[in-house]
Every structure is written in structure tokens, then in C-alpha cells.
Design goal:
By secondary structure, the chain is α+β, with helices and mostly antiparallel strands. The chain has one domain. The chain is built from six helices and eight strands; from the N terminus they run E-E-E-H-E-H-E-H-E-H-E-H-H-E. It has an eight-stranded antiparallel sheet with strand order 1-2-6-7-4-3-5-8. Strand 1 and strand 2 form a beta hairpin. Helix 1 crosses helix 6. The longest helix has 18 residues.
Length: 172
């Protein structure tokens, strides 16, 4: 069993810590997206699962990374800092029935100063995938179980991602 803590260190040396702040219903939440495809978002959620090992559960969390426009972080600062070419925004009150917003700071020693600065407004949107997946490592899943997991993640994202439309191309 993994000890549950308020911060974890990934195998790459990135530290993920839980903050105390929360989002209000009218706070804007920005999702940074490459292609914006369901497949790419699903792959990112699953690939990052075990990085969260020990933060809330023994084995990880299924999360989608976003930035709140809070704590002095602006949309422009997110646009400038992040490399993705498109973004979507939603009010937290519109999506809170679909996810849990976990206030996390991701301290990556290789991140640019701009990315480090906006981390005070980073959140992970925890998808409700089910305890049967949270209680084990993904490597323990059979092919059939893994495919069922992918389907659950895609279903959760299909419900969530439309709130982040229209997507806006980055001009900055």
C-alpha cells in the first residue's frame, strides 16, 4: 500500500502538491489542448494516471489539467506560457457536476519561469472513472479491462469537453 500524502514526486522528478484554494462557480477554467481530439485527451489522462500515485489514492488519479483564472493568473499569461495552440474556457459552475477540481501545483524543475508562475492557478479535473480502477496499477489490467477503462475515460471526456467550446486559437 502507498502512503497517502499532500504531495508526490513522479519518476521524472516532478512534484505534484495539493493547495488549499478552490474554484468559485463563476471562475473561468482554461483547458490547453493540442489537437483537441478525444483520443489525445484520453491518452493523456491515462498516461498521467500513475504520476498521481499516493496523492489521493494508492495507484493514481484520472485527471485533466486546467488553469483557473484566479490567484493573479490571467488568460493571457496562460496563453503565453503554454505551448499548445488552442484553448477552451468554461465556468467552473458549468462543469462541477462532472468532475472534482483538485488544486494542484506541478513543480517541474525543467519548466520555464512562465509555466512555474502560472502553477498557482493549476487544477486537475478528476474524472469519475470508478473505484475498480483506482484500486490497482494499470499494468495489472487485462487487455479487456484496459479497453473498458479507455471507454470509461472517453465517455467522461465526451461529457466534459463540449463545455470547453468553442476552442480558441492562440494569437499570442
Amino acid at each position: 500500500m502507498v502512503e497517502i500524502s499532500r504531495s508526490v514526486t513522479t519518476p521524472d522528478g516532478v512534484v505534484i502538491s495539493i493547495r488549499e484554494d478552490q474554484l468559485d462557480d463563476d471562475d473561468l477554467v482554461f483547458i490547453h489542448m493540442g489537437s483537441g481530439s478525444l483520443e489525445a485527451a484520453s491518452k493523456a489522462v491515462i498516461n498521467n494516471y500513475e504520476d498521481y500515485r499516493g496523492l489521493i489514492t494508492d495507484n493514481g488519479l484520472f485527471c485533466l489539467s486546467v488553469f483557473g483564472i484566479i490567484n493573479g493568473v490571467t488568460a493571457e499569461s496562460v496563453f503565453r506560457a503554454m505551448p499548445q495552440k488552442q484553448y477552451g474556457a468554461a465556468e467552473y459552475g458549468q462543469i462541477k457536476h462532472l468532475v472534482t477540481a483538485l488544486p494542484t501545483t506541478i513543480a517541474d524543475p525543467d519548466a520555464s519561469p512562465e509555466i512555474q508562475k502560472i502553477q498557482r492557478a493549476h487544477f486537475d479535473l478528476v474524472l469519475p472513472i470508478g473505484d475498480e480502477y483506482l484500486s490497482r496499477a494499470l499494468s495489472d489490467l487485462s487487455d479487456k479491462q484496459y479497453q473498458a477503462l479507455v471507454t470509461k475515460v472517453e465517455h467522461a471526456l465526451e461529457r466534459l469537453l463540449p463545455y470547453f467550446t468553442p476552442r480558441v486559437r492562440k494569437d499570442i
